[in-house]
Amino acid sequence: MMKTLTRTMTAIGISAAALAALAMPASAAHESNNHLQFDPVAASPSPSASGAGTINYIKGTSGAEPDTQWTSSFRFSGLDAETTYTVVVRGRFAAAAAFSGICTFTSNSSGSGSCSSRFTGLQRLAIAQLRLGSSAGAPVLQATRQAVVSGPGSITSAGGCREPDQAGSTCVAPGRN
Question: In terms of CATH architecture, what is 33-158?
Answer without folding.
Answer: Sandwich (2.60)
